Structures are given as C-alpha cells and as structure tokens.
Amino acid sequence: MVYTILLIVIVSYFYRQGRRGQLEYGGFTLKPTFGTAKVKGYLEKYFTFYQALPAKSKKVFEKRVAYFISCKEFVPREMGEVSWEMKALISASAIQLTFGFPKVHLSYFRHILVYPEQFYSTINKQFHKGEVNPRAKTIVLGWKHFVEGYLEKDGRNLGLHEMAHALRLENRVMNHEYNFLDEDVLDSWEMQATHAMKEIADGTEDFFRTYGATDREEFFAVAVENFFERPTEFSKKHPKLYATLCNLLRQDPKLLIKIK
C-alpha cells in the first residue's frame, strides 16, 4: 500500500513538471524544447518580425523555432559547422512564413544544407544562392545571402523565398501537414497571380521584380518576399492580391500579429 501511494506521488510530480513551460497554441500543445533559451537571444537581437510580436506570441515563436531546429538536420557545406545562430535565424524564417499555421513545420524537408555563400547546383548545373530539392527532402541556403536578405528591406529575401517554395511543396505532400492552404483562397490567388505575371511580362508592372514572371512558383516566392518586407507598399499597389495572400497565410504583416 505504501509503495502504491509513493508511486502515485512520484508520477504526479513528474506530470506536473512535464506540464511546466507548455503553451497551448491553436489547439496544439507546444512542449518545452531543448534550445529555446538559446533561440530567444538570437531572435531578440536580430529578428525584427519576432521583435514586433506581443509577449505571448513571442513565446510561441521561440518554441516553434526551437521545435523546428529539433526536427531538422543542419548540414554544413564548405564550412566547419552550422552554428546555433544560423540554426535559429534560418528556422525563424520558416516559422515567420508558417506562423498562421500552428501545426506546420515543413516536416517533409528533413535536411537544411548551409553554404558560406553561393554554391554550384548539381540540379541545373548553375551557381545558386539557394534552392529547394524535393527529391532529397532538402532546403539549401547560402548563409551570406540569407543574412543580406534580412539586412535590406528591398523585397529580396533568400530565406523567405526558399521557404515559400518549400511551403508550396509541403502543401501537396501526403503527410500530416497535407493541404493546409485553403483551396478556395489558393484558387483565387492563382487567378490573380496569373494576371500579375502577365503585367510583369508586358512591362506594365514595376513593383515585383521580373523574375516573378518565370512561373507561378517563382511568383509566389517573390510575392512572399514583398509581403513581409514591404507590406505597406504591397497593399497599396496591389490591395486585392495582398488581401488574398493575407487570407492564404493567415496573417497580416502590417498589423500586430495575433495568434489564430
């Protein structure tokens, strides 16, 4: 009898301990994750999106970044290691994009390769600053260019660009994160995007860079860059397109972020 009571007390204690630090977010329980404290310091110092969030949303962001890190293999290429700073900021770019989706962490992509700068791509035999390789389940980034993307608010952001490609692919993969983008909103986006791409090709559109007219995937990635980096200008220049992207990603960078 004494043994049974003691066992109940011990189990109860560890259950309470395990609950500490957990945070409910969109019906999803975020448990304490190793590295959260390290992540917070880098976000506070460097990541402006995180800095603009209210206190509760910051806690969610920290835990999601730490969880993202724990789910990926960060592989150094032509460099000694992928530091915690690199891991934190690269992961933050993914969470910035997926912040409106509590359960989406781009789980299909297991590896993140980091080069010091541009690298030679064996996919199309060219030098790239970044790429997404769905066959290898890999996101590849040149660190120098990743950093430059966040230093200048000019609508060019390598991290957001490549994470946008990964997001579109993740939405199509048959896993637990499948089909999280609203189909009706996505259809509306595709129609509006097609129109905008024609304007870019015709030379009547000067907000998006010409690379956005390459195809729908590239236009989405270019639009995402501008969505987060130049939201006010985007919303004024293309109000319907901006509103559709807000609905698609479940967030509005112009406003204080609210947990949905």
Q: What is the rounded distance between the termini?
A: 48 Å
Shape: globular
Q: Roughly what fraction of the amino acids lie in strands?
A: 5-15%
Q: Could you list the spans in which at least 5 consecutive residues all have pLDDT below 50?
A: 1-21
CATH topology: Collagenase (Catalytic Domain)
Question: Do you know the CATH architecture?
Answer: 3-Layer(aba) Sandwich
Reading off the top of the CATH hierarchy, the class is best stated as Alpha Beta
What string, H for helix and E for strand, traces the elements in order?
HEEHHHEHEEEEEHHHHHH
Count of folded domains: 1
Number of separate strands: 8
CATH homologous superfamily assignment:
Collagenase (Catalytic Domain)
Based on secondary structure, the structural category is alpha/beta
Q: In percent, how helical is the residue content?
A: 40-55%
